[in-house]
């Protein structure tokens, strides 16, 4: 039992850190995916907005759902929520606590993606280059509306033949990037202030309820892990007894039907105990054939009752 | 048995993490393979589509099959599926559970390949460059080009060095357009797969939790039972071989002693362990004969019972053949203890 205790103490203390670790890895993965991703704005009037906003919002949704999937506690919470009441009442505060902590961890990677996107600026430049006021920029003023839209849509593409030497393109680009970075830093600041306030002010509200909810959510998690471990242990013992019973019944059959010289009794078998009385090529073949064609029933009540 | 217990607990608790590890390695391998692969669009009208779609769809299929091959549990599933019913009933729910969990893991590497391919854009650009909307993006009214001729020109879009349709439609414009579509498809595919995985995982506790616990327990049981049976058979084979060889050496030494008309040399009672291990063979000639006999005439796979104390030193009689025993009627219950 000592080994079990060690393993479970490890699980208990590290359940939170395992989840924090996964959360951190996902955040790093989101930055890595963004840097590896080859952003190429289509530079066409309607497609720009769809592409830019799509790249800004679809990957965060994917990362959020990934964060929910990878978090083991979400399954535990769902099971607790959907289980029939039985003899144990359900505490909604515990379920709410678990839900909240899962959401918090799952939101980190999407927020990192959005902030990195805004600080980099390419997405916003691509999405909103067609929405700037052309009169503010010398190179785009006094051009017909349709043409100006086409030109503005090409601003994100530096290598386009029309835009290669256009200084107003750089002006629009800088303008949009400035807005993008301002937005990015503001979001980051607001989030950090919110997290700071939440952590500092939480003990002022309902601390006792919080402690209870945290305790019981840990308990549910550990109880499920121990149940799985116990099932594994049980199935191992079950299999062990089942196979022993099978070998013993083979030995009895051989004794019953063979005309071998009388043995000296159980004591003389000593080191040959592992042979189970099976000492012949035909007997071994028969044992293997029986194992395949007629597996023993899953019932060891006769073995355990002895 | 303590050693077995440790090994099996390790395997059991780590079976899932081992399979997850293989799954992750295959996903990384598939991304790496894609970046190492030298994509070469043929830039010819019908070949483009075949090449592009082939690179998009054939490697994932191969990765899926590889995922099944590398999974240890495939043979276990096949065995359980094909075995005769005998005294133990078969539960289709267990087979379904085993198949589903293998299929889920095998699908990850192909999904990674398809996502990486779509997000990169080269395959879709190659496959669909002849379908670019020239009216909206370029000059459709460019004179002197029949349909076939236009398709031939458009097919060269991915190959910038030989592209000669700059007046028809600019190369960068077409490539940007196609890549945008490809990346949009890629992200939609990734989102769809993730949502699907999320639904599969979260609907289970809502609907079939009890059946799931049962299937999981019995599929683990089948796995453990198979491993334990293999270990027991290996132990048996080891003991069988040990006794067989021991009896061979003893038989050899007794034979030779009988041939030279003196009683077999038994180790004296106060001799050390080393003398016992010599099994009565203590000179070069005897040893050489023993080795030759081992090669020329291996003993039958049939162990003699231990020698009786009446003094008949050579227990070399053949056992009478064992009659095939009548199969015993045992209870045919699929008894679940969950």
From TrEMBL, chain A:
Its main location: membrane. InterPro entries: CALHM. It is found in: Membrane. It comes from Circaetus pectoralis. This is CAHM3 protein. PANTHER family: CALCIUM HOMEOSTASIS MODULATOR PROTEIN, CALCIUM HOMEOSTASIS MODULATOR PROTEIN 3. One of its GO terms (cellular component) is plasma membrane. It is a multi-pass membrane protein. The chain crosses the membrane at residues 49-71, 92-115, 182-201.
Automatic annotation (TrEMBL), chain B:
InterPro entries: CALHM. It is found in: Membrane. Pfam families: Ca_hom_mod. One of its GO terms (cellular component) is plasma membrane. One of its GO terms (biological process) is ATP export. Keywords: Ion channel, Ion transport, Membrane, Transmembrane, Transmembrane helix, Transport. GO terms for molecular function: monoatomic cation channel activity. It is a multi-pass membrane protein. The chain crosses the membrane at residues 21-37, 49-70, 184-203. Belongs to the CALHM family. This is CAHM1 protein. It comes from Circaetus pectoralis.
């Amino acid at each position: 039992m000592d080994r079990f205790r060690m393993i479970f103490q490890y699980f208990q203390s590290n359940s939170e850190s395992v989840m924090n670790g996964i959360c951190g890895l996902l955040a790093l993965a989101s930055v890595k995916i963004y840097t590896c991703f080859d952003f190429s704005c289509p530079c066409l009037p309607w497609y720009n907005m769809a592409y830019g906003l799509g790249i800004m919002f679809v990957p965060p949704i994917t990362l959020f759902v990934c964060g929910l999937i990878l978090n083991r506690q979400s399954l535990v919470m769902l099971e607790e929520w959907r289980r029939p009441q039985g003899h144990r009442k359900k505490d909604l505060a515990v379920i709410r606590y678990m839900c909240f902590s899962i959401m918090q961890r799952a939101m980190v990677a999407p927020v990192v993606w959005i902030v990195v996107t805004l600080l980099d600026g390419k997405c916003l430049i691509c999405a909103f280059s067609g929405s700037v006021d052309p009169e503010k920029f010398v190179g785009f003023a006094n051009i017909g509306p349709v043409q100006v839209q086409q030109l503005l849509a090409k601003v994100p593409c530096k290598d386009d033949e029309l835009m290669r030497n256009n200084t107003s393109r750089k002006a629009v680009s800088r303008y949009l990037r400035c807005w993008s970075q301002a937005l990015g830093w503001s979001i980051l600041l607001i989030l950090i202030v919110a997290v700071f306030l939440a952590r500092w002010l939480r003990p002022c509200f309902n601390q006792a309820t919080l402690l209870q909810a945290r305790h019981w959510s840990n308990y549910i998690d550990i109880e499920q892990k121990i149940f799985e471990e116990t099932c594994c242990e049980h199935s191992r013992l079950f299999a062990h007894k089942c196979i022993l019973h099978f070998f013993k019944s083979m030995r009895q059959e051989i004794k019953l039907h063979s005309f071998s010289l009388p043995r000296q009794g159980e004591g003389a078998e000593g080191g040959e105990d592992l042979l189970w009385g099976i000492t012949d090529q035909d007997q071994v073949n028969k044992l293997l054939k029986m194992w395949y064609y007629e597996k023993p029933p899953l019932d060891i009540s006769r073995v355990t009752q002895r | 048995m303590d050693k077995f217990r440790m090994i099996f607990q390790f395997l059991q608790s780590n079976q899932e993490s081992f399979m997850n590890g293989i799954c992750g390695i295959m996903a990384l391998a598939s991304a790496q393979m894609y970046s190492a692969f030298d994509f070469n669009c043929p830039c010819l009208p019908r070949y483009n589509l075949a090449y592009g779609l082939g690179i998009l769809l054939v490697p994932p299929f191969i990765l899926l099959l590889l995922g099944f091959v590398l999974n240890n549990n495939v043979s276990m599933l096949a065995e359980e599926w094909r075995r005769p019913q005998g005294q133990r009933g078969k539960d289709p729910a267990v087979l379904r559970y085993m198949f589903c969990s293998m299929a889920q893991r095998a699908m990850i590497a192909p999904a990674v390949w398809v996502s990486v391919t779509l997000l990169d854009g080269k395959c879709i650009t190659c496959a669909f460059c002849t379908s670019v909307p020239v009216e909206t993006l370029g000059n459709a009214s460019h004179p002197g080009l029949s349909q076939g001729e236009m398709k031939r020109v458009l097919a060269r879009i991915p190959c910038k060095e030989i592209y000669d349709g700059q007046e028809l439609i600019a190369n960068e414009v077409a490539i940007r357009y196609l890549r945008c579509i490809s990346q949009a498809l890629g992200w939609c595919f990734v989102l769809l797969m993730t949502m699907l995985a999320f639904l599969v995982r979260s609907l289970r506790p809502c609907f079939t939790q009890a059946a799931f616990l049962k299937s999981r327990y019995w599929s683990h049981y089948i796995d453990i039972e198979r491993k334990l049976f293999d270990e027991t058979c290996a132990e048996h084979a080891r003991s069988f071989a040990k006794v067989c060889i021991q009896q061979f050496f003893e038989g050899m030494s007794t034979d030779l002693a009988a041939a030279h008309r003196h009683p077999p040399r038994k180790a004296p009672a106060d001799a050390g362990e080393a003398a016992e291990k010599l099994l009565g063979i203590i000179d070069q000639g005897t040893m050489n004969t023993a080795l030759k006999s081992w090669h020329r005439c291996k003993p039958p796979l049939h162990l003699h019972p231990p020698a009786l104390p009446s003094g008949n030193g050579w227990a070399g009689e053949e056992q009478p053949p064992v009659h095939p025993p009548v199969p015993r009627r045992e209870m045919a219950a699929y008894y679940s203890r969950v």
